[in-house]
Recover the amino acids of this structure.
C-alpha cells in the first residue's frame, strides 16, 4: 500500500511509466503501457456542428436519441457541456469540465470537475436519452474530488476514480465509496471491473487492484517485477529489483 506522503508515492509522481487498464472480450483485465500524453485531444465534432466560444480542450461526444452531448475539458482554462441537435444547433448546458459519460437505463451520467492548485471538486450530472431543454440536466450528487476516469459497471451504475478515491455511483444518485486514497499525484487514466468483480485502475507507476472478499474490497498495489524498489534521480523515478 502506498501512503499519500510516502516516498513511493512521491517517486511515482516523477515516473515515466504509466499503465492503462482495459477489458478483454472475455471480461478479463489487461494492463498496457500508456503514453504520457495529457491534454486536449482532437476528435471531430458531429456533422453540421460548428465550434462555439467555450468549446476548448479535450473533446468527448455521446450520441443521444435526438442529437449529441459534447464535452470539453481544458483544465484550469475552462470546459463545458453542450447539446447539439441533429441539425447542428447547439446549446450550452453547463460550463464545468467534462471528464466522461456513462449510459444508464435512467439516462446518461456526466462526470464533471476540476483539480487545479488548491481547487479539487467534482459532481455527477444526468440527462435523459432525449433532451428537450436545458432544464433536463440534473445534478445527481457531489464527488469526493475531481473525476479522473469512469467506466460502466452495470445497466444503472458506474465506477469512478477521483483524486481522492474510488466510488460506485448509481443513476438514482446513491453512491458507495470503495476506497479512500489520494491519487492526485498519480494521474489515474482508466478504471475497469473484471468479470470476477475485481476492479483495476491504471495510473503512473502503479495499477491499483481492489479484490472483493466477503463483501469488502481488499486494496492491492501492483508494479512490474523489475520495479520493486525505486527512488528519484535527476527528477526521474528510477526502478530496480
Amino acid at each position: 500500500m502506498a501512503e499519500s506522503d510516502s516516498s513511493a508515492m512521491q517517486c511515482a509522481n516523477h515516473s515515466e511509466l504509466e499503465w492503462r487498464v482495459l477489458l478483454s472480450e472475455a471480461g478479463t483485465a489487461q494492463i498496457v503501457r500508456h503514453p504520457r500524453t495529457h491534454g486536449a485531444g482532437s476528435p471531430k465534432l458531429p456533422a453540421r456542428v460548428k465550434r462555439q466560444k467555450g468549446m476548448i480542450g479535450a473533446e468527448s461526444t455521446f450520441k443521444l436519441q435526438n442529437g449529441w452531448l459534447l464535452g470539453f475539458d481544458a483544465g484550469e482554462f475552462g470546459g463545458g457541456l453542450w447539446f447539439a441537435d441533429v441539425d447542428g444547433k447547439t446549446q450550452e448546458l453547463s460550463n464545468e469540465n467534462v471528464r466522461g459519460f456513462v449510459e444508464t437505463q435512467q439516462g446518461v451520467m456526466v462526470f464533471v470537475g476540476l483539480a487545479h492548485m488548491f481547487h479539487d471538486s467534482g459532481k455527477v450530472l444526468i440527462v435523459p436519452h432525449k433532451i428537450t431543454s436545458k432544464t433536463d440536466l440534473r445534478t445527481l450528487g457531489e464527488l469526493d474530488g475531481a473525476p479522473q476516469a469512469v467506466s460502466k459497471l452495470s445497466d444503472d451504475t458506474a465506477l469512478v476514480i477521483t483524486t481522492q478515491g474510488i466510488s460506485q455511483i448509481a443513476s438514482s444518485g446513491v453512491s458507495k465509496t470503495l476506497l479512500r486514497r489520494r491519487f492526485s499525484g498519480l494521474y489515474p487514466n482508466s478504471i475497469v471491473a473484471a468479470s470476477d468483480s475485481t476492479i483495476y485502475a491504471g495510473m503512473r507507476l502503479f495499477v491499483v487492484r481492489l479484490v472483493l472478499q466477503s463483501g469488502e474490497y481488499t486494496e492491492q498495489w501492483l508494479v512490474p517485477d523489475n520495479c520493486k524498489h525505486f527512488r528519484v534521480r535527476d527528477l526521474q523515478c528510477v526502478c530496480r529489483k
